[in-house]
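Sanity check

After download, print the first record. It should look like this:
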Amino acid sequence: MRDAVRQATLAELAEHGYNGLTVDNVATRSGVHKTTVYRRWTNAEGLIADALELARDEPWPVPDTGSVQDDLREIVRLVRRGFTDPVDGPIASAFVAAAVQSSGAARSLHDFFVARHDQAAAVVRRAVERGELPAHTDVGDVVRMAVAPIYYRLFITREPVTERDADRAADAAVAAARAGSI
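Expected structure tokens:
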């Protein structure tokens, strides 16, 4: 039942966005009785939180090429693809839209990104251990600095983001870390 509701939630988000997400539509699409969905998830915010929990727990390929620059480039490319992919992009964007409008969705999205950034920070920690980056490097700041331009362009200025843009963002973060700035 839970999987059917989660999959229906993702499908509804892909088709209608956060503003079009309703418990009734999710219940119909999932084949789960409406009162059961309301009892367990209460509202669209509950459906979003559960879907984000599912996404947070899915494995995420953290690269280990032996080069912080190559690893961070791949992570930023993954982030870019997550928001620009024709199938997954609308869902990921709907999660962001939900977080803007709902404090519960914002908490869920925060938890999702904390988990993803913790996973991504492993590439920076390995780089510090290999001596590629200074020992005092703030691993979280390196990850945030690498992905922030992607989010800015996608959601603030609504500019297209190319793979080259993703690589430049990663390279800038690595350069700042190597210089001891972060």
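If your output differs, re-run the checksum step. Summary of this record's structure: The chain has two domains: 2-53, 61-178.
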